[in-house]
UniProtKB/TrEMBL annotation:
<dbReference type="GO" id="GO:0050660">
    <property type="term" value="F:flavin adenine dinucleotide binding"/>
</dbReference>
<keyword id="KW-0285">Flavoprotein</keyword>
<keyword id="KW-0274">FAD</keyword>
<dbReference type="Pfam" id="PF05199">
    <property type="entry name" value="GMC_oxred_C"/>
</dbReference>
<comment type="similarity">
    <text>Belongs to the GMC oxidoreductase family.</text>
</comment>
<feature type="domain" description="Glucose-methanol-choline oxidoreductase N-terminal">
    <location>
        <begin position="217"/>
        <end position="333"/>
    </location>
</feature>
<dbReference type="InterPro" id="IPR036188">
    <property type="entry name" value="FAD/NAD-bd_sf"/>
</dbReference>
<protein>
    <submittedName>
        <fullName>Gluconate 2-dehydrogenase flavoprotein</fullName>
    </submittedName>
</protein>
<dbReference type="Pfam" id="PF00732">
    <property type="entry name" value="GMC_oxred_N"/>
</dbReference>
<dbReference type="GO" id="GO:0016614">
    <property type="term" value="F:oxidoreductase activity, acting on CH-OH group of donors"/>
</dbReference>
<keyword id="KW-0560">Oxidoreductase</keyword>
<feature type="region of interest" description="Disordered">
    <location>
        <begin position="158"/>
        <end position="180"/>
    </location>
</feature>
<dbReference type="InterPro" id="IPR000172">
    <property type="entry name" value="GMC_OxRdtase_N"/>
</dbReference>
<feature type="domain" description="Glucose-methanol-choline oxidoreductase C-terminal">
    <location>
        <begin position="427"/>
        <end position="551"/>
    </location>
</feature>
<dbReference type="InterPro" id="IPR007867">
    <property type="entry name" value="GMC_OxRtase_C"/>
</dbReference>
Length: 578
């Protein structure tokens, strides 16, 4: 029998960016919020001198323990899915702050085209431009509606950036100026300009100068140490939940953070969701936390898994195409090209989001009439700081061991640069999430099963974008350029990109989406699901800025829901008294 606690207004499952934004906004208003986090609480000082690449990058110190909770993976429905035993294609963060602590800091607004991709593509290119095997759809919200929330997120994080020459005109400047333009970035920028492109600095939450956000939280200036991705920032210079939204929530006195609380089910009693069931990882006791509103804000995979375990919504069936929970799973694919040069570059220092980017081949900024794909990619060269294990590049044909390897890797460490792209991935009918019929987690519950493979659209876009990246590297003066290649089938183990989306997608139609544009479930009006899992497709940018904007909007929706219910309850009490 689970221990039952006193009811709270709101319970938030997962304290990454989405969950901490909701917790901060609602607790500031005066709602009582309980935040449940599976991992431990970490603060800036916990990452002092934590420059251990083997521990954090190879050993995945900040990620979910796959020996206890993993997922299964297969390429197609006629294969048996097998458990993922080590990280590769994506990362599932743990501890307070989640992926918002170990991210690089690239902070984008998805483009207006993304939010209306189906209707705008049909209008410009015709309904038959993309096969109906690709389950693209509009998001049920427009860019213009999200602008105020993008702005709130950027001000919370102190984002450093400049106007995108090919993007929507900003209503106001970024809160802080762009990061420093290094000699490497200047060369890349000039090569892009010679080719007629429109380069600009990547918008960054590794910020350029000390900044105090509207809630009074201080974010420090980036020191360009080069330890961002997969690391916590020892300087407090990377905007994250542990330096912004979580301290804000705590200061209200209306927020309670509980760590070591692994939520395993959303509880439904007498036809109504009444709270969540979690396991206390210290005592192994089951605990029921009642709440008026349940907010699910964990990793994309865990959001979907929790709904499926709790039997909320209708699971997606790729054969009948009915149901939406698990639908439209996408993973970012990153075409890249490495250039080898006859000159040396000093790229040891850097920052996760320090880079030059072009949008000339992203969104619908170029004509797709004669192309067999839509959308595109943002193409960048980033100076993130070179590290000796993960970024030990050698030219093709060199063995990965021995004297030759040592010689060539030492040379290439300062004489090679890699440019990459964040590329569109469209949802496909047979790329989806479901529960595995065979494998279970530590609690005896089915693991989440990923069914995913590369598509012809992926290959067409990758080939086109890869050619553009190669051209830029050649213009920079590379003596040899090596492009990335796609395998015959997607392999989950080589390191790809951890920007995965879909599974609890948003939309305007309850028949084709899980949540509305406030991220409120169509089937359960007191359940809100927030995160990358809401995206109906993966755009040409990192998703975090858009997740943040959606979270701010969802917080408004939750407040409206709570106030409406209180007014109804108050009216009922008055009627009863009369």
């Amino acid at each position: 029998m689970a221990k039952r606690l006193d009811k709270t207004d709101v319970v938030v499952v997962g304290l990454g960016w989405a969950g901490s934004i909701v917790a901060a906004e609602l607790s500031k208003i005066g709602h009582n919020v309980v935040g449940l986090e599976r991992g431990k609480e970490k603060k800036t000082e916990d990452y002092l001198t934590a420059h251990d690449e083997y521990r954090y990058v190879i050993g995945h110190e900040m990620m979910q323990d796959l020996s206890r909770e993993t997922l299964t993976y297969r390429n197609s429905t006629d294969e048996e899915a097998l458990p993922m035993r080590r990280y590769g294609a994506f990362l599932i963060g743990t501890d307070v702050g989640g992926g918002g602590v170990h991210w690089n800091g690239d902070t984008w607004r998805y483009h207006p085209y993304d939010f209306e991709i189906k209707s705008q593509t049909d209008e410009k290119y015709g309904a038959d431009k993309i096969s109906d095997e690709y389950t693209i759809q509009d998001w049920g919200i427009t860019y213009e509606e999200l602008v105020p929330y993008f702005s709130k997120y950027e001000k919370n994080s102190g984002v450093s950036g400049e106007q995108n020459p090919l993007g929507p005109e900003r209503e106001e400047s970024y809160p802080t100026p762009p990061l420093k333009e290094t000699p490497v970035l200047t060369e890349y920028k000039e090569a892009c300009e010679r080719l007629g492109y429109h380069p600009f600095m990547v918008p960054a939450s590794t910020i350029s100068q000390q900044y105090v956000n509207p809630d009074g939280q201080t974010i420090n200036a980036c020191q360009y140490c080069g330890f961002c991705e997969k690391f916590g920032c020892e300087w407090g210079a990377k905007a994250s939940p542990i330096v912004t939204t979580i301290p804000t929530a705590k200061e209200t006195g209306n927020f309670e953070l509980r760590t070591g609380a692994n939520v395993v089910e959303i509880v439904k009693e007498d036809g109504k969701v009444t709270g969540v069931l979690y396991v206390d990882l210290l005592t192994q006791e089951e605990v029921m936390q009642p709440a008026d509103v349940v907010v699910v804000t964990s990793h994309t995979t865990n959001n979907t898994k929790l709904l499926l375990h709790s039997k909320l919504g209708t699971p997606y069936d790729p054969e009948s195409r009915e149901g939406s929970v698990g639908k439209n799973y996408c993973l970012h694919i990153t075409p890249s090209a490495t250039g080898f040069f006859d000159k040396e570059y000093n790229t040891v220092t850097g920052a996760g989001a320090l880079g030059i980017v072009i949008d000339d081949f992203n969104n619908d900024n170029f004509d797709h009439t004669d192309l067999d794909f839509i959308h595109g990619a943002s193409i960048a060269l980033k100076q993130t700081g070179k590290r000796p294990i993960e970024q030990n590049t050698v030219p093709p044909g060199v063995k990965n061991w021995g004297a030759e390897f040592k010689k060539e890797s030492i040379k290439a460490f300062t004489q090679s640069l890699t440019s990459h792209a964040q590329m569109i991935t469209l949802p496909h009918r047979y790329n989806y999430l479901s529960l595995d019929p065979t494998y279970k987690d530590d609690y005896g519950r089915p693991l989440l099963r990923v069914t995913y493979d590369l598509t012809e659209h992926d290959r067409a876009a990758h080939e086109f974008i890869g050619g553009k990246i190669e051209g830029i590297m050649e213009e920079m003066g590379a003596t040899q350029v090596v492009r990335s290649e796609l395998p015959d089938h997607f392999d989950i183990y080589p390191a790809h990109n951890d920007h995965i989306v879909g599974g609890t997608i948003m939309g305007a139609d309850p028949e084709t989406s899980v949540v509305n544009n406030y991220l409120q479930m169509w089937d359960e009006d007191n359940v809100f699901v927030i995160g990358g899992s809401n995206f109906p497709h993966n755009g040409g940018y990192n998703p975090t800025g858009t997740v943040g904007a959606l979270a701010y909007r969802a917080a408004e929706g939750i407040d409206m829901y709570l106030e409406d219910n209180r007014q109804l309850a108050s009216a009922g009490e008055v009627a009863g008294a009369n």
